[in-house]
C-alpha cells in the first residue's frame, strides 16, 4: 500500500465547479513563520473545498486585490514595529490617501498577526493592516489574532483555535453544496512540486543557485575573541569582496547557512535516498495557486537541496508533525503523531519537541516508518532561513570589507547531544579562503548626518557590533562626542574589542563605560549592568540628551535589556529634570519619533 492510500483520502485540486469558493491567503513574512502559518491555513482550506491560493504579498499583483472577495492576511512584525519587507509594497499601496472608503466593501477578510510580546509594538503590522482594511470597507469574518512567539506552544498556540474559528465562520458564509463534505484531517493535499530525473549538469546551473541579491565574499578570518576557556565562543569574522561594495553604519549582513554535512548524510540514509542523493532532478511547480518559493532551485540534487535549502536542524513546527502523521505507516507511530496534532496532545508535543529543542532530523530518525514521497519534500520541510548580523565595521575604515561579531550558539537541553545554532555552527566550519554569498540590508538604526551631534551607544555583548561600526564611521568623520556603554561578564574573558576601545579612548575619540557584571559581583556582591551605569551617569546623560540633542541607540538581546535601558533613561530624566513619569516617558517617545532613539535587538 502506498503512503497516499494509507493516509486515507486525497484532496482534489479541481474546484472549477465551485467558483464562489475562492480563498486568497496573502502572507508577509520575514523569517518564514508567517509563511508556514499561511500554508497551513491554505491546506486546511483545501479540505473545505476552497480553491486556495497562498501567495507572498510581494509576489501578488496588488491591483487585482480589489477583485478578491475572500482574503486571509497573515503577517508578522519585524524591526521594532515594522512590517516584513515582502509586505512593504502592498502596505504602501493600501496607505494611499486617495483610496475610496468603500474600496473593499465586497471583500470578506481575516487577519492573523504574528509577533513577540517581548517587543513594545506587539503585532504592530497585523494591527495596522487590520485597521486599514476596516477603514477601506472590508468585512471582517473572524476577530484578528495576535499570535505570540512567547506562548509556550509558540505561534501554533494561537493558530490552532483561530483556524477552527475561521473555518466555522467560513462554513456559515459559504455552506457546502449538498453531497459535499469536509475532508478528514488525514486527507493529503496534492504536492506543490514534481521531481523529474534529468541529465542536466549541476555546474551549468551553479550561477543560478546563489541567493538573489547577494555578492560573493572571501572569508579572511574567523577568530575567537573570548578567552579560550570561556563558556561562550564569540568570533570576529572578516569578509572581503573584490568589487567595490557600499554599506552604511547600522546596515546588516545576511548570511545563507548550510546544514552540517554529517547531518545531511544521516538524513539521506534514514530516508533511503543515498543511492539517488547525487542524481540531478528537475523540480517543477505543478500548482500555480501554491507556487514554489523562488529560492528553491529548479535543477539540483537531493544532497544540495537538503544541504543548502531545506532545513533539517530547526525545531519542527506543528505542520511538520501533521505531514508525518499522514505519511507514517506504523500504527503506533501514527497514533503518537495523531496525538501530537490534536488539541489534547499539545503539552506532550511541547515536552517532546519544543522544550528539549529536538530537531527535524532527530524527529525523523525516531519516527522510522514515515516515508515521505519525493514530490512532497518542499511541502514538508521548511526553508533554511537566512540569518542577519549587524555589520561591526565601517566601510570608510575598512574598504571592501565587512566585519561581524558573532556569538556561536551552543547550549544543552535534556537531550544528550548539545544543541547547536545552524548558522553560527556553519560559520565555525568555514576556513579562510572560502567564498560565501552575503546580502546587505538596511538596519533600523541610522547615525545623524551632522557629525557634531553627540551619540550615546548602548551595546552589551554582541550588541556592540553595530556600535563599533558607528564609532569607526564617526571617528573617520572627525566626531568625538561618542559615549559607549558596553556590557560583559568579565573584562578578562569576554570584553569584545577592548583594545579598540582603549586606543580610541587614548586619542580622545571615545568615552567608554564597561559594566563587567561578574567582576563587579566579586567586589560589591551585586551585578552591575549597562542600565546601572546609565543611572550612575545621570548628569552626563541628562546634559547630552536634553541640552546637546544626543541620539540614543540600543542593540543586543531583545529580552529584558532594551526595556531596562529605557527605564534607566527615564529615571535620569525624572531625577535630573524633576519630570514626572509621564513627562519622561513622553520625552523618550518623542525622541523616537524624531529619529533620535533607535533600537536593533534580536532574540
Ligand atoms: C537585525 C539582526 C542583527 C543581528 N546581529 C547579530 C550580531 O551582530 N551578532 C550575533 O551573534 N547575532 C546577531 N543576530 C542574531 C543572529 O541573526 C542569529 O539569530 C543567531 O546568530 C543565531 O543563529 P543560529 O542559526 O546559529 O541559531 P539558530 O539555529 O537559529 O538557533 C537559535 C535559537 O536557539 C535557541 N537558543 C539559543 N540559545 C539558547 C539557550 N541557551 N537555551 C535555549 N534555547 C536557546 C533560541 O530559540 C534561538 O532563537 C542578529 C539578528 C538580527 C535580527
Ligand atoms: C529582528 C526582529 C524584530 C522583531 N520585532 C517585532 C516587533 O516589533 N513586534 C512584534 O510583535 N514582534 C517582533 N518580532 C517577532 C516576530 O514578529 C515573530 O518572531 C514572528 O513569528 C516572525 O514571523 P516571520 O518568521 O514570518 O517573520 C521581531 C522579530 C525579529 C527577529
UniProtKB/TrEMBL annotation:
Main location: cytoplasm
E.C. code: 1.18.1.-
One GO-annotated biological process of the protein: iron-sulfur cluster assembly
UniProt-annotated location(s): Cytoplasm; Mitochondrion
Ligand binding (FMN): 29-34, 76-79, 149
Catalytic function, reaction form: 2 oxidized [2Fe-2S]-[protein] + NADPH = 2 reduced [2Fe-2S]-[protein] + NADP(+) + H(+)
GO cellular component, one term: mitochondrion
InterPro entries recorded: CysJ-like_FAD-binding, FAD-bd_FR_type, Flavdoxin-like, Flavodoxin/NO_synth, Flavoprot_Pyr_Nucl_cyt_Rdtase, Flavoprotein-like_sf, FNR_nucleotide-bd, NADPH_Cyt_P450_Rdtase_alpha
Residues that coordinate or bind NADP(+): 462, 517-518, 527-531
Domain Flavodoxin-like, residue spans: 23-167
Gene Ontology molecular function terms on file: flavin adenine dinucleotide binding; FMN binding; NADP binding; NADPH-iron-sulfur [2Fe-2S] protein oxidoreductase activity; oxidoreductase activity, acting on NAD(P)H
Domain FAD-binding FR-type: 212-448
UniProt keywords, alphabetically: Cytoplasm, FAD, Flavoprotein, FMN, Mitochondrion, NADP, Oxidoreductase
Highest taxon listed in the record's lineage: Eukaryota
Binding site for FAD: 357, 387-390, 421-424, 602
Cofactor(s) listed: FAD; FMN
Enzyme class: oxidoreductase
Functional description taken from the UniProt entry: NADPH-dependent reductase which is a central component of the cytosolic iron-sulfur (Fe-S) protein assembly (CIA) machinery. Transfers electrons from NADPH via its FAD and FMN prosthetic groups to the [2Fe-2S] cluster of CIAPIN1, another key component of the CIA machinery. In turn, this reduced cluster provides electrons for assembly of cytosolic iron-sulfur cluster proteins. It can also reduce the [2Fe-2S] cluster of CISD1 and activate this protein implicated in Fe/S cluster repair. In vitro can fully activate methionine synthase/MTR in the presence of soluble cytochrome b5/CYB5A.
Entry similarity comment: Belongs to the NADPH-dependent diflavin oxidoreductase NDOR1 family. In the N-terminal section; belongs to the flavodoxin family.
HAMAP family: NDOR1
Subunit record text: Interacts with CIAPIN1; as part of the cytosolic iron-sulfur (Fe-S) protein assembly (CIA) machinery. Interacts with DCPS. Interacts with DRE2; as part of the cytosolic iron-sulfur (Fe-S) protein assembly (CIA) machinery.
Name of the molecule in the record: NADPH-dependent diflavin oxidoreductase 1
Amino acid at each position: 500500500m502506498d503512503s497516499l492510500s494509507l493516509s486515507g483520502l486525497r484532496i482534489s485540486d479541481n474546484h472549477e465547479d465551485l467558483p464562489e469558493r475562492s480563498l486568497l491567503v496573502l502572507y508577509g513574512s520575514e523569517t518564514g513563520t508567517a509563511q508556514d502559518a499561511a500554508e497551513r491555513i491554505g491546506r486546511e482550506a483545501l479540505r473545505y473545498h476552497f480553491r486556495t491560493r497562498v501567495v507572498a504579498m510581494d509576489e501578488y499583483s496588488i491591483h487585482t486585490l480589489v477583485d478578491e472577495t475572500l482574503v486571509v492576511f497573515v503577517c508578522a512584525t519585524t524591526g521594532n514595529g515594522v512590517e516584513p519587507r515582502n509586505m512593504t509594497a502592498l502596505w504602501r499601496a493600501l496607505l494611499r490617501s486617495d483610496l475610496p472608503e468603500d474600496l473593499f466593501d465586497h471583500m470578506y477578510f481575516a487577519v492573523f498577526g504574528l509577533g513577540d510580546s517581548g517587543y513594545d509594538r506587539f503585532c504592530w503590522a497585523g494591527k495596522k493592516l487590520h485597521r486599514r482594511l476596516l477603514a477601506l470597507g472590508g468585512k471582517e469574518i473572524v476577530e484578528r489574532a495576535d499570535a505570540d512567539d512567547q506562548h509556550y506552544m509558540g505561534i501554533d498556540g494561537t493558530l490552532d483555535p483561530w483556524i477552527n474559528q475561521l473555518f466555522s465562520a467560513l462554513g456559515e458564509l459559504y455552506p457546502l453544496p449538498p453531497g459535499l463534505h469536509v475532508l478528514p484531517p488525514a486527507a493529503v493535499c496534492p504536492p506543490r512540486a514534481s521531481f523529474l530525473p534529468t541529465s542536466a549538469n549541476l555546474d551549468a546551473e551553479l550561477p543560478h543557485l546563489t541567493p538573489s541579491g547577494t555578492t560573493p565574499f572571501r572569508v579572511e578570518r574567523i577568530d575567537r575573541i573570548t578567552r579560550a576557556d570561556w563558556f561562550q565562543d564569540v568570533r570576529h569574522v572578516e569578509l572581503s569582496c573584490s568589487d567595490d561594495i557600499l554599506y552604511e553604519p547600522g546596515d546588516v549582513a545576511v548570511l545563507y547557512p548550510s546544514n552540517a554535512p554529517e547531518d545531511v548524510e544521516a538524513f539521506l540514509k534514514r530516508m533511503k535516498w543515498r543511492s539517488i542523493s547525487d542524481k540531478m532532478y528537475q523540480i517543477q511547480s505543478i500548482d500555480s495557486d501554491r507556487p514554489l518559493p523562488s529560492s528553491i532551485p529548479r535543477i539540483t540534487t537531493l544532497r544540495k537541496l537538503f544541504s543548502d535549502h531545506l532545513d533539517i536542524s530547526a525545531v519542527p513546527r506543528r505542520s511538520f508533525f501533521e505531514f508525518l502523521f499522514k505519511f507514517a505507516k506504523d500504527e503506533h507511530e501514527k497514533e503518537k503523531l495523531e496525538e501530537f496534532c490534536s488539541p489534547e496532545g499539545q503539552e506532550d508535543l511541547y515536552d517532546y519537541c519544543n522544550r528539549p529543542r529536538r530537531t527535524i532530523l532527530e524527529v525523523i530518525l525516531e519516527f522510522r516508518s514515515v516515508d515521505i514521497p519525493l514530490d512532497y519534500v518542499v511541502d514538508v520541510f521548511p526553508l533554511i532561513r537566512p540569518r542577519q548580523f549587524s555589520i561591526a565595521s565601517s566601510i570608510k575604515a575598512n574598504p571592501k570589507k565587512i566585519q561581524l561579531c558573532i556569538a556561536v550558539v551552543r547550549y544543552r537541553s535534556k537531550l544528550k547531544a548539545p544543541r547547536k545554532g545552524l548558522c553560527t555552527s556553519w560559520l565555525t566550519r568555514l576556513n579562510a579562503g572560502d567564498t560565501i554569498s552575503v546580502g546587505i540590508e538596511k538596519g533600523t538604526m541610522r547615525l545623524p548626518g551632522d557629525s557634531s551631534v553627540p551619540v550615546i551607544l548602548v551595546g552589551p555583548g554582541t550588541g556592540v557590533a553595530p556600535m563599533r561600526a558607528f564609532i569607526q564611521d564617526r571617528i573617520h568623520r572627525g566626531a568625538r562626542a561618542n559615549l559607549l556603554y558596553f556590557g560583559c561578564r568579565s573584562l578578562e574573558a569576554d570584553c569584545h574589542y577592548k583594545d579598540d576601545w582603549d586606543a580610541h579612548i587614548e586619542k580622545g575619540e571615545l568615552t567608554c563605560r564597561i559594566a563587567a557584571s561578574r567582576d563587579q559581583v566579586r567586589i560589591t556582591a551585586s551585578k552591575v549592568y549597562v542600565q546601572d551605569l546609565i543611572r550612575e551617569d545621570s548628569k552626563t546623560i541628562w546634559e547630552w540628551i536634553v541640552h546637546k540633542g544626543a541620539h540614543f541607540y540600543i542593540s543586543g538581546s531583545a529580552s529584558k535589556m532594551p526595556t531596562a535601558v529605557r527605564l534607566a533613561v527615564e529615571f535620569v530624566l525624572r531625577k535630573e529634570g524633576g519630570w514626572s513619569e509621564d513627562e519622561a516617558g513622553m520625552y523618550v517617545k518623542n525622541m523616537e519619533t524624531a529619529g533620535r532613539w533607535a533600537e536593533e535587538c534580536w532574540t
